[in-house]
Design goal:
mainly alpha, 197 residues, 0% strand
C-alpha cells in the first residue's frame, strides 16, 4: 500500500467514525480499502461495527450524491476532465450511461455491485435529472450491504486487513451474480408492466 494512502488512513483513524465517513466521502481511496480498515479498527476495539457501517454508509451515499450533482449541473465535459480524481473515466461514463438509458432508474441499485459501472452510474442519473430522493433511496439500499460486507471482512482479517483483495473475490462474485439476477427480474417486471399498459 502506498505511503500516501497509509498516511491518510492513519489520519482518518484519529477521527474515529467521522474518519470512516470522510474517507468514503472524498473518494481518494477506494471504498473497499476504507471499509476494510474500519473493520480492522472494529477488531481493535476502537470503534463499533454498527457505527462503522452507519458512518460508512453515510459517507458512501454522500460521495455518490456529489457525483450525481456534478452530472446534473456540470455535465459530461466536467466529469470527463476531472472524473479521474474520483476513479471515473470516459469509458466508465459511457458504459454507465448506456446501462441507465437502457434499464432505467432501477439500475441505480443493481449497478452498485457491478465493476466498471459501479462508481459511474451516478453520472447518467444526474444527467437525466433523476429525482434526488429516489436516487438516494436506491443508492442507500446498495451501499448498506456493501459497507457491512467489507467492514466484516476487515474485522475478520484484523492485522492482515491489507490483504482484502485476496479474499474479497469469493464474496463479491456471488453478490455480482445476485445483482445480475435482480437486474433480470427488474427488466422482466418492467416489460410486463409495459405490456399491460
Amino acid at each position: 500500500m502506498g505511503e500516501f494512502i497509509h498516511s491518510l488512513l492513519v489520519f482518518f483513524e484519529g477521527l474515529g467514525y467521522w474518519g470512516v465517513m470522510l474517507g468514503l466521502m472524498i473518494e481518494v481511496i477506494p471504498s473497499e480499502i476504507v471499509l476494510s480498515y474500519a473493520g480492522y479498527l472494529v477488531a481493535k476495539g476502537e470503534i463499533g461495527f454498527a457505527g462503522a457501517v452507519f458512518f460508512g454508509t453515510v459517507g458512501g451515499v454522500v460521495a455518490q450524491i456529489f457525483v450525481y450533482w456534478v452530472g446534473r449541473y456540470g455535465g459530461r465535459p466536467i466529469l470527463e476532465r476531472y472524473g479521474k480524481y474520483i476513479f471515473i473515466n470516459k469509458h466508465h461514463i459511457d458504459v454507465a450511461e448506456t446501462w441507465f438509458n437502457k434499464y432505467g432508474t432501477g439500475v441505480i441499485f443493481t449497478a452498485r455491485f457491478i465493476p466498471v459501472v459501479r462508481h459511474a452510474i451516478s453520472v447518467p442519473a444526474g444527467l437525466a435529472k433523476m429525482p434526488l430522493g429516489l436516487f438516494t433511496f436506491y443508492t442507500t439500499l446498495a451501499v448498506i450491504p456493501w459497507s457491512m460486507l467489507f467492514v466484516y471482512l476487515g474485522m475478520t482479517l484484523k492485522d492482515n486487513w491489507e490483504n482484502i483483495d485476496d479474499i474479497a473475490g469469493k464474496y463479491t462474485v456471488p453478490i455480482l451474480i445476485a445483482a445480475i439476477g435482480l437486474m433480470i427480474i427488474y427488466l422482466v417486471a418492467k416489460k410486463m408492466r409495459a405490456k399491460r399498459k
